[in-house]
Amino acid sequence: MTRLLIAAMLAALIGAPAQAQTASDAPADDAAAQAAPAADAAGEDDDDDDDDAPAAAASTVQHHDFGPSGIMARSNREDLAPMTLSSGKPVAEAEYSLQSGGFYRVKIVSDGTQELALSGGDFFRAVWINEVVINDIEIRPLGVHSIEFDDAGEAEISFIAIMPGRYTLSIPGSSGESQQAVFNIR
Questions:
Q1: What is the percent of the chain where pLDDT is above 90?
Q2: How far apart are CA 38 and CA 44, in angstroms?
Q3: What is the dihedral of CA 28, 26, 19, 49, to 10 degrees?
């Protein structure tokens, strides 16, 4: 048990936790292998085989390696095709396919031809909104139900997809399929 504790302390000192987040990475095994000789040099004997069992079990745990900044790092974010709010034009060119746990950013552009909104309470409850940016003003809301444009402008929403399902953001009062954006979270 002492050998495992010393190996964990050495791994923390040399910065191995980021590498040890994935089970299949060889560097995590290298860190443990480097820590073992250090433990032996500290006077540990090799006849206690019980210490090896927890180390083997710990290496089978799988985690995602999102890097030092976590899931919301720019390198993990995917920019989606922009949505358009314009009189007589489709909101989105195609359906959006998202992965649960993925970090996304989508721009909504209004040309000001008509006062239009996008509403979708179900979609906004299925995602975690990181921020809404309007004219370089960042808003971090607790919840959103809709977003409305009275004039031409842009808004950018960054979010993490959470609940799998099929969700829509649509122009209130419209019935056409082109007047909505469909999000498939898998």
A1: 50
A2: 9
A3: -10
Model confidence pTM above 0.85:
no
Rounded Cα distance between 82 and 4, Å, is 51
Diameter of the chain measured on Cα atoms: 79
- What is the rounded distance in angstroms from the CA atom of residue 2 to the CA atom of residue 67? 29
Task: Print burial letters for 38-60: b (CB count within 10 Å at least 16), e (below 16).
Answer: ebeeeeeeeeeeebeeebeeeee
Residue with tokens 């745990």: 61
- Distance CA(12)–CA(133), nearest Å, equals 38
Exposure string (b/e) for 64-86, b if CB count within 10 Å is 16 or more?
eebeeeeeeeeebeeebeebbbe
What is the sign, positive or negative, of the torsion defined by CA atoms of 53, 56, 57, 58? positive
Q: Which amino acid is at 104?
A: Y
